[in-house]
Design goal:
about 325 residues; alpha/beta; Rossmann fold; six-stranded parallel sheet; four-stranded parallel sheet; 14 helices; globular
């Protein structure tokens, strides 16, 4: 898919283009666009949302042939671009130190949430709409269901909740290439529910109606990505539990925001315990939830990010002339 899109972009007449912006992923399409931009002398920026090579290193091992090849492709693509924008300081360190991109050509611009969170959501009505009992503790994971998310860990936590008579019910909201396998793995587990993606208004209501919001990553994942769901999670004022490596970029975000609890990835009992801890300690839950909102306003602000992108793109044009 990426290669066909990249080839189409290369074969398209760019006409009088001031600057080209590509997004990685898709890395291969970006690489082809960078190649054309160098030939035509067009300024081009690559906006890095996830780091391909680091993902392969963390999921398949740094010694794998695929990881080595991808690191060379990604490094060459980013070094050949006029400029690079990344979404986190951890990404910048990797791009500069591991991929060899000059530091003065790498800009950190944070992502922002696409949702608007109202202050007057009727949580009881929303829970009734979604079929969530008031006496249940709803721990919601919203977003992609892929390999990186390792959502078998959440299902195992739900299985433990059922065996231990816990009131915690886990909800997996969204789609992804692993969903069919996950539904099969969860067969017979009463304390877990799958939900299809929702339009923005209902999605926001689901986040606010939950008691705890869940981030789950596979063991070993540290640098490859910063879950975009966190920007929406923090904006809702609900506490977050992140099952991730303690030295991961995701854990850094939880600590920086103060919006939740980090537990080690791949440990379902720890995940369940953290959710129950927040429920048993309403003051802690309220404190975590309240910390997310100012973090969004001060660090993940949309207006600030859009202004930064406008300035960055303008600078790419100026620097290429």
């Amino acid at each position: 898919m990426e290669l066909s899109y990249g080839l189409r972009s290369v074969l398209t007449n760019w006409r009088k283009t001031d600057v080209v912006l590509t997004v990685s992923p898709a890395l291969f399409a970006s690489g082809l666009a960078v190649l054309k931009a160098r030939i035509t002398g067009t300024p081009i920026g690559v906006w890095v949302q996830d780091i391909y090579s680091r993902g392969l290193e963390e999921t398949k091992g740094s010694s794998s042939l695929a990881a080595k090849v991808m690191k060379r492709v990604e490094g060459q693509t980013l070094r050949s671009a006029t400029g690079v924008a990344v979404i986190h300081e951890r990404f910048r360190a990797y791009v500069v130190n591991e991929l060899g991109v000059p530091g003065d050509r790498v800009r950190v611009i944070r992502n922002w949430t696409h949702i608007s969170v109202p202050d007057n959501v009727d949580r009881a009505a929303a829970r009734s709409q979604f079929g969530w009992a008031l006496q249940d503790t709803i721990a919601l994971h919203a977003g992609n269901m892929g390999v990186k998310q390792n959502l078998e860990n959440v299902i195992d936590a739900a299985r433990l909740a059922e065996l231990q008579g816990s009131s915690v019910r886990f909800v997996l909201l969204g789609h992804g290439n692993q969903r069919p396998a996950l539904e099969k793995y969860a067969a017979g587990v009463k304390n877990i529910t799958f939900m299809d993606p929702l339009p923005d208004e209902l999605f926001t209501q689901a986040l606010q109606a939950a008691d705890v919001l869940i981030v789950n990553e596979m063991p070993g994942v540290k640098e490859m990505s910063v879950p975009s769901k966190l920007t929406s999670y923090f904006a809702t004022g609900r506490p977050v539990v992140a099952a991730t490596e303690p030295d991961s970029a995701t854990a850094d975000e939880i600590r920086a925001s103060g919006a939740g609890i980090q537990v080690n990835s791949g440990r379902p009992q720890s995940l369940l315990n953290a959710v129950e801890e927040l429920v048993a300690n309403p003051e802690l839950a309220a404190s975590c939830g309240a910390a997310g909102v100012p973090y969004v306003r001060s660090v993940l602000d949309e207006g600030r990010a859009v202004d930064a992108y406008q300035a960055w793109l303008s600078n790419l044009i100026t620097s290429a002339n």
